[in-house]
Amino acid sequence: AQSVSQHNHHVILSEAASLELGCNYSYGGTVNLFWYVQYPGQHLQLLLKYFSGDPLVKGIKGFEAEFIKSKFSFNLRKPSVQWSDTAEYFCAVNERGNNRLAFGKGNQVVVIP
Amino acid sequence: NAGVTQTPKFRVLKTGQSMTLLCAQDMNHEYMYWYRQDPGMGLRLIHYSVGEGTTAKGEVPDGYNVSRLKKQNFLLGLESAAPSQTSVYFCASSYTRRADSYEQYFGPGTRLTVT
To answer: What Cα–Cα distance (Å) separates residue A97 from each residue in A89, B96, B98?
Structure first.
Protein backbone atom coordinates (compact mmCIF):
# COMPACT_ATOMS: atom_id res chain seq x y z
CA ALA A 1 0.00 0.00 0.00
CA GLN A 2 1.22 3.44 -0.82
CA SER A 3 1.85 6.03 1.85
CA VAL A 4 2.03 9.81 1.85
CA SER A 5 4.38 11.72 4.14
CA GLN A 6 4.02 15.32 5.20
CA HIS A 7 6.62 16.75 7.54
CA ASN A 8 6.52 19.66 9.97
CA HIS A 9 2.96 19.13 11.07
CA HIS A 10 2.75 22.57 12.71
CA VAL A 11 4.01 25.64 10.85
CA ILE A 12 3.79 29.18 12.19
CA LEU A 13 4.56 32.08 9.87
CA SER A 14 4.23 35.83 9.74
CA GLU A 15 2.26 37.49 6.97
CA ALA A 16 4.28 38.02 3.78
CA ALA A 17 6.61 35.12 4.60
CA SER A 18 7.06 32.35 2.06
CA LEU A 19 5.55 28.93 2.65
CA GLU A 20 6.73 25.54 1.45
CA LEU A 21 5.12 22.28 2.54
CA GLY A 22 6.71 18.99 1.63
CA CYS A 23 4.88 15.92 0.37
CA ASN A 24 6.48 12.59 -0.47
CA TYR A 25 4.75 9.40 -1.56
CA SER A 26 5.89 5.82 -1.72
CA TYR A 27 4.25 4.46 -4.87
CA GLY A 28 6.56 3.93 -7.83
CA GLY A 29 4.01 3.86 -10.62
CA THR A 30 2.00 6.58 -12.32
CA VAL A 31 0.11 8.72 -9.86
CA ASN A 32 -2.34 11.59 -9.63
CA LEU A 33 -1.43 14.19 -7.00
CA PHE A 34 -3.59 16.61 -5.05
CA TRP A 35 -3.35 19.30 -2.40
CA TYR A 36 -6.47 19.99 -0.37
CA VAL A 37 -7.00 22.83 2.09
CA GLN A 38 -9.27 22.84 5.13
CA TYR A 39 -10.03 26.25 6.62
CA PRO A 40 -11.06 26.29 10.29
CA GLY A 41 -14.44 24.63 10.73
CA GLN A 42 -14.86 23.91 7.04
CA HIS A 43 -14.66 20.94 4.72
CA LEU A 44 -11.78 20.04 2.45
CA GLN A 45 -11.45 22.02 -0.76
CA LEU A 46 -9.20 21.27 -3.70
CA LEU A 47 -6.24 23.65 -3.93
CA LEU A 48 -4.56 22.16 -6.98
CA LYS A 49 -3.97 18.88 -8.76
CA TYR A 50 -1.51 17.22 -11.11
CA PHE A 51 -2.39 14.51 -13.59
CA SER A 52 0.14 14.95 -16.39
CA GLY A 53 2.04 17.57 -18.40
CA ASP A 54 3.85 20.56 -16.91
CA PRO A 55 5.15 19.46 -13.49
CA LEU A 56 4.69 22.98 -12.11
CA VAL A 57 1.03 23.33 -11.28
CA LYS A 58 -0.70 26.57 -10.34
CA GLY A 59 -3.74 26.49 -8.10
CA ILE A 60 -6.10 28.89 -6.45
CA LYS A 61 -5.13 31.76 -4.12
CA GLY A 62 -1.56 32.01 -5.42
CA PHE A 63 -0.51 28.47 -4.50
CA GLU A 64 1.63 26.30 -6.74
CA ALA A 65 3.16 22.85 -6.49
CA GLU A 66 5.98 21.10 -8.28
CA PHE A 67 5.97 17.42 -9.13
CA ILE A 68 9.47 15.93 -9.08
CA LYS A 69 9.11 12.35 -10.21
CA SER A 70 12.68 11.33 -9.32
CA LYS A 71 12.13 12.45 -5.75
CA PHE A 72 8.56 11.15 -5.43
CA SER A 73 7.63 14.62 -4.23
CA PHE A 74 4.86 17.15 -4.77
CA ASN A 75 5.75 20.17 -2.65
CA LEU A 76 3.35 23.07 -2.16
CA ARG A 77 4.54 26.68 -2.22
CA LYS A 78 3.25 30.20 -1.82
CA PRO A 79 5.64 33.16 -2.09
CA SER A 80 3.81 35.45 0.33
CA VAL A 81 1.19 34.16 2.77
CA GLN A 82 -1.75 36.06 4.20
CA TRP A 83 -3.58 35.67 7.50
CA SER A 84 -6.43 34.04 5.56
CA ASP A 85 -4.11 31.17 4.58
CA THR A 86 -4.37 29.85 8.14
CA ALA A 87 -5.64 26.33 7.54
CA GLU A 88 -4.72 22.68 7.46
CA TYR A 89 -3.20 21.43 4.21
CA PHE A 90 -3.38 17.84 3.04
CA CYS A 91 -1.46 16.14 0.29
CA ALA A 92 -3.20 13.19 -1.38
CA VAL A 93 -2.13 10.64 -3.96
CA ASN A 94 -3.84 7.96 -5.96
CA GLU A 95 -2.45 5.36 -8.30
CA ARG A 96 -3.51 5.94 -11.88
CA GLY A 97 -6.71 3.97 -12.41
CA ASN A 98 -7.38 3.46 -8.69
CA ASN A 99 -10.22 5.47 -7.19
CA ARG A 100 -8.83 5.42 -3.65
CA LEU A 101 -6.91 8.43 -2.36
CA ALA A 102 -4.16 8.12 0.23
CA PHE A 103 -3.86 11.23 2.42
CA GLY A 104 -0.95 12.57 4.35
CA LYS A 105 -1.45 13.54 7.99
CA GLY A 106 -1.68 17.21 7.16
CA ASN A 107 0.18 20.42 7.92
CA GLN A 108 -1.42 22.86 10.33
CA VAL A 109 -0.39 26.32 9.13
CA VAL A 110 -0.93 29.40 11.27
CA VAL A 111 -0.23 32.82 9.78
CA ILE A 112 0.29 35.61 12.29
CA PRO A 113 -0.84 39.07 11.19
CA ASN B 1 -26.27 22.43 -7.30
CA ALA B 2 -25.69 21.59 -3.62
CA GLY B 3 -22.69 19.31 -4.20
CA VAL B 4 -22.14 16.91 -1.32
CA THR B 5 -24.32 17.30 1.76
CA GLN B 6 -24.21 15.49 5.09
CA THR B 7 -26.80 14.98 7.81
CA PRO B 8 -26.56 15.63 10.74
CA LYS B 9 -23.85 18.24 11.32
CA PHE B 10 -23.38 17.37 15.00
CA ARG B 11 -24.36 14.43 17.16
CA VAL B 12 -23.65 13.20 20.67
CA LEU B 13 -24.16 9.51 21.39
CA LYS B 14 -23.83 7.37 24.46
CA THR B 15 -21.70 4.23 24.31
CA GLY B 16 -23.69 1.40 22.78
CA GLN B 17 -26.18 3.58 20.92
CA SER B 18 -26.58 3.34 17.17
CA MET B 19 -26.95 5.95 14.48
CA THR B 20 -26.82 6.50 10.75
CA LEU B 21 -25.05 9.31 8.95
CA LEU B 22 -26.47 10.31 5.60
CA CYS B 23 -24.48 11.58 2.64
CA ALA B 24 -26.12 12.86 -0.53
CA GLN B 25 -24.62 14.16 -3.76
CA ASP B 26 -26.34 15.72 -6.74
CA MET B 27 -23.46 15.54 -9.21
CA ASN B 28 -24.30 12.08 -10.57
CA HIS B 29 -20.99 10.75 -9.28
CA GLU B 30 -20.35 7.04 -9.42
CA TYR B 31 -17.97 6.80 -6.49
CA MET B 32 -18.63 7.74 -2.89
CA TYR B 33 -16.47 7.53 0.22
CA TRP B 34 -16.63 7.82 3.99
CA TYR B 35 -13.61 9.11 5.91
CA ARG B 36 -12.89 9.88 9.51
CA GLN B 37 -10.60 12.72 10.52
CA ASP B 38 -8.73 12.65 13.80
CA PRO B 39 -6.10 15.15 15.03
CA GLY B 40 -2.66 14.32 13.67
CA MET B 41 -3.99 11.34 11.69
CA GLY B 42 -5.17 12.99 8.48
CA LEU B 43 -8.13 11.39 6.74
CA ARG B 44 -8.60 7.67 6.90
CA LEU B 45 -10.93 5.81 4.58
CA ILE B 46 -13.66 3.81 6.31
CA HIS B 47 -15.70 2.40 3.41
CA TYR B 48 -16.31 3.33 -0.18
CA SER B 49 -18.62 2.51 -3.06
CA VAL B 50 -17.94 2.35 -6.77
CA GLY B 51 -21.58 2.30 -7.75
CA GLU B 52 -25.16 1.76 -6.65
CA GLY B 53 -25.52 -1.47 -4.71
CA THR B 54 -21.77 -1.96 -4.18
CA THR B 55 -19.60 -1.24 -1.15
CA ALA B 56 -16.04 -2.07 -0.12
CA LYS B 57 -13.88 -1.79 2.98
CA GLY B 58 -11.32 0.94 3.36
CA GLU B 59 -8.48 1.37 5.81
CA VAL B 60 -10.49 1.45 9.08
CA PRO B 61 -13.83 -0.37 8.51
CA ASP B 62 -14.31 -2.06 11.90
CA GLY B 63 -17.38 -0.92 13.81
CA TYR B 64 -19.03 0.65 10.75
CA ASN B 65 -21.41 -0.51 8.05
CA VAL B 66 -22.49 1.22 4.86
CA SER B 67 -25.17 0.99 2.23
CA ARG B 68 -25.59 2.47 -1.25
CA LEU B 69 -29.16 1.73 -2.23
CA LYS B 70 -29.42 4.79 -4.46
CA LYS B 71 -26.68 6.31 -6.57
CA GLN B 72 -26.96 9.69 -4.89
CA ASN B 73 -26.93 8.45 -1.28
CA PHE B 74 -24.29 6.73 0.84
CA LEU B 75 -25.17 5.83 4.43
CA LEU B 76 -22.71 5.16 7.23
CA GLY B 77 -23.99 3.21 10.22
CA LEU B 78 -22.62 2.72 13.70
CA GLU B 79 -24.38 -0.25 15.29
CA SER B 80 -22.90 0.11 18.78
CA ALA B 81 -21.01 3.35 19.24
CA ALA B 82 -17.75 3.42 21.18
CA PRO B 83 -15.74 6.41 22.49
CA SER B 84 -13.01 5.54 19.96
CA GLN B 85 -15.45 6.52 17.23
CA THR B 86 -15.51 10.11 18.41
CA SER B 87 -14.34 11.91 15.30
CA VAL B 88 -15.28 14.16 12.40
CA TYR B 89 -16.75 12.18 9.53
CA PHE B 90 -16.47 13.36 5.97
CA CYS B 91 -18.25 12.03 2.94
CA ALA B 92 -16.81 12.52 -0.53
CA SER B 93 -17.73 11.65 -4.08
CA SER B 94 -15.91 11.43 -7.38
CA TYR B 95 -16.43 10.56 -11.04
CA THR B 96 -14.23 9.73 -13.92
CA ARG B 97 -14.23 12.39 -16.55
CA ARG B 98 -11.12 10.64 -17.68
CA ALA B 99 -10.01 7.18 -16.66
CA ASP B 100 -6.97 8.60 -14.90
CA SER B 101 -8.59 11.21 -12.68
CA TYR B 102 -10.39 10.72 -9.40
CA GLU B 103 -10.72 14.19 -7.90
CA GLN B 104 -12.88 13.92 -4.80
CA TYR B 105 -15.49 16.45 -3.66
CA PHE B 106 -16.10 16.66 0.06
CA GLY B 107 -19.11 17.32 2.22
CA PRO B 108 -19.13 19.68 5.23
CA GLY B 109 -18.58 16.93 7.80
CA THR B 110 -20.38 15.48 10.82
CA ARG B 111 -18.87 15.97 14.25
CA LEU B 112 -19.68 12.92 16.37
CA THR B 113 -18.98 12.61 20.07
CA VAL B 114 -19.46 9.32 21.88
CA THR B 115 -19.54 9.55 25.66
So the answer is: 24, 10, 10
